[in-house]
C-alpha cells in the first residue's frame, strides 16, 4: 500500500487579506488538496489520469510533476507568484508561477467548494496541532540531546586539558632526566679528552727525552772512533821507524 506524505502551507496572496491554509496529501502519481480560510473550504482531488495528462502536456514524467507540485504547495517558494481567485459558481483557482529555461510559466488547479467546510477546516487544524506537537517533542528531544552533547563536550574538554597538563609534566620530567644524562655524558667526555691530552703530552715528553739520549750516545761513539784512529796512526808510524834502522 502506498504511504502518502502530508504537507500544510500557510499562504498569503495579493488577492486575500487573510492567509489561507493548503493541506496536501501526496502519492507517487496523484495528490489531494484542501484549502481553508478559516470559514470556508475547498478541495481538489487530482486523479492519476489528470496528473498524467498535465505531465504529458508539460513534457514531464509524472513523478517530476508531482514532486514539483509538492515543492511549491508544501513550502512557499521565493520568487513565485501565488494566486487564489474566484472561478465562478463558488469555485476557486489556485495558481503559482515558476521559471523554466528563462521563461516564466504558471500552473493552475481548480477547487470546488467542500461539502463540509467545518470538517475540512477541523481536519487542517488537527493536522497543524499534531504537527506542532511533533515539532515540540522533537525540540524537547533535540534540546536534551544537545544538553547531553554539551555535557560530554565539556567533559572531553576537561579530560583534554588534564591530559595536556599531564603531558607537559611528563615532558618536563623526561627533559630533566635527559638533561642530567646529557651533562653526565659531557663530563665523562671532558674527562676522557683531558686524559687523552695528558697521555699525549706525556708520550711527547718521553719521545723528546729518548731522542736527546740517542744524540748523546752517538757523540761518544764518534770520539771513540777518533781515538782509535789516532792510536792506529801512531802504531803505524812507530813500526816504520824501526824498520829504517
UniProtKB/TrEMBL annotation:
Entry-linked Gene3D superfamilies: 1.20.5.370
Database matches in InterPro entries: DNA_repair_prot_XRCC4, XRCC4-like_C, XRCC4_CC, XRCC4_N, XRCC4_N_sf
Cellular compartments per GO CC: DNA ligase IV complex; DNA-dependent protein kinase-DNA ligase 4 complex
Name of the molecule in the record: DNA repair protein XRCC4
Recorded coiled-coil stretches: none
High-level lineage: Eukaryota, Viridiplantae, Streptophyta, Embryophyta, Tracheophyta
Domain XRCC4 N-terminal: 19-113
Keywords attached to this entry: DNA recombination
Cited Pfam families: XRCC4, XRCC4_CC
Stretches with biased composition (Basic and acidic residues): 193-205
GO molecular function, one term: DNA binding
Domain XRCC4 coiled-coil, first and last residues per copy: 143-192
Ranges for region Disordered: 193-245
Family classification: Belongs to the XRCC4-XLF family. XRCC4 subfamily.
GO biological process per UniProt: DNA recombination; double-strand break repair via nonhomologous end joining; response to X-ray
Compositionally biased intervals (Polar residues): 230-245
Amino acid at each position: 500500500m502506498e504511504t502518502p506524505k502530508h504537507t500544510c502551507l500557510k499562504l498569503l496572496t495579493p488577492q486575500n487579506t487573510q492567509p489561507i491554509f493548503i493541506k496536501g496529501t501526496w502519492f507517487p502519481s496523484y495528490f489531494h488538496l484542501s484549502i481553508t480560510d478559516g470559514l470556508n473550504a475547498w478541495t481538489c482531488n487530482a486523479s492519476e489520469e489528470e496528473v498524467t495528462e498535465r505531465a504529458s502536456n508539460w513534457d514531464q514524467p509524472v513523478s517530476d510533476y508531482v514532486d514539483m507540485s509538492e515543492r511549491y504547495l508544501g513550502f512557499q517558494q521565493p520568487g513565485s507568484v501565488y494566486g487564489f481567485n474566484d472561478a465562478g459558481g463558488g469555485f476557486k483557482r489556485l495558481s503559482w508561477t515558476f521559471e523554466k529555461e528563462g521563461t516564466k510559466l504558471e500552473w493552475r488547479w481548480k477547487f470546488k467548494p467542500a461539502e463540509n467546510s467545518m470538517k475540512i477546516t477541523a481536519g487542517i487544524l488537527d493536522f497543524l496541532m499534531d504537527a506542532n506537537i511533533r515539532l515540540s517533542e522533537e525540540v524537547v528531544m533535540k534540546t536534551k540531546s544537545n544538553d547531553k552533547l554539551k555535557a560530554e563536550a565539556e567533559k572531553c574538554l576537561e579530560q583534554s586539558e588534564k591530559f595536556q597538563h599531564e603531558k607537559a609534566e611528563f615532558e618536563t620530567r623526561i627533559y630533566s632526566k635527559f638533561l642530567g644524562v646529557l651533562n653526565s655524558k659531557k663530563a665523562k667526555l671532558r674527562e676522557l679528552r683531558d686524559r687523552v691530552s695528558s697521555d699525549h703530552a706525556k708520550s711527547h715528553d718521553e719521545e723528546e727525552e729518548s731522542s736527546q739520549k740517542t744524540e748523546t750516545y752517538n757523540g761518544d761513539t764518534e770520539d771513540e772512533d777518533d781515538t782509535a784512529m789516532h792510536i792506529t796512526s801512531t802504531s803505524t808510524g812507530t813500526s816504520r821507524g824501526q824498520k829504517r834502522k
